[in-house]
Amino acid sequence: MPFARLATATTPTCHIGLGLAAVGRPGYINLGRDQDLGEDRSVETLRTRTHELLDAAYAQGVRYFDAARSYGRSEEFLADWLGDRPGLDDIVVGSKWGYTYTADWSTDAEKHEVKDHTLAAYERQRAESDALLGGRLDLYQIHSVTPDSPALTDKELHAKLAEAAAQGLTVGFSTSGPAQADAIRAALAVTVDGEPLFRTVQSTYNVLETSAAPALAEAHDAGLTVIVKEGMANGRLAGPHAPDAVREIAERTGLGCDAVALAVILRQPWAGVVLSGAATTNQLASNLHAAVVDLDDDQLTRLATPAEEPHAYWERRARLPWH
């Protein structure tokens, strides 16, 4: 399985990956993004920014890179970068299908992405991903599975995914929403010919949203690699917006609120890869300091206090503007 390569990495940042949601398209819901990206959001400007982030990440030990069909041109930017660096064969590349990007490079589109978990959507988007990433695609995940997703019950889709897995592609799923734990457990029950279908799960977990933790521990125990997304809660755990507990401990450690917030996730025994969603190289460098943050039990207890009720967290996330 491609993720086994991460376990053999020797750098302290080997368990931190880079997600491209914030830089593959001009509009996203991260707080502070106006300041991060400025006014020039042209394709070529974001391509250059993405390549700079990828260079910086690789130089600092990051080996997992995460894209999606709905992240604008993230797959294209990643493919271009890989094409210019053919010797980087220690990288693990993941992408996702199930949402179509519909904003046409606009920051104020009525809809930025449309969800579709049908077999037809998989086949169309798999062909699109393959056209860009070809043999470099290691992991392909269903994007944002919920308990009522047809992807959990579509036997024909399962057969196609199992066929892809038999050909060497790792198959996984991501989750979103207040019922992440239910979705994870439902996906763990999906089998083809008596064998579990999914080998990875990518879920939201952070200081403010901890509800998926027990199910993620179950997934880990079942042999899945757990990837954690939105560890910064779309910017709500960054310096200007972070809860008091995060700010106070960051001051004591001398590092950023982001490093503290991500360090909490790295401490979870089930967390295989924790994604940085950095939009700038400075943010990335600060995120990577999470690997050296030493949190004691008292600090971890203090950092558990800001957690929100899941429905409240996801309702607030849904109200974040697309910058």
Automatic annotation (TrEMBL):
Q: What is the lineage of its organism?
A: Bacteria, Bacillati, Actinomycetota, Actinomycetes, Kitasatosporales
UniProt domain NADP-dependent oxidoreductase: residue ranges: 49-303
Q: Which CDD domains match?
A: AKR_unchar
The protein's matches in Pfam families, at most eight in alphabetical order, are given as: Aldo_ket_red (PF00248)
Please report the name of this protein according to its UniProt entry: Aryl-alcohol dehydrogenase-like predicted oxidoreductase
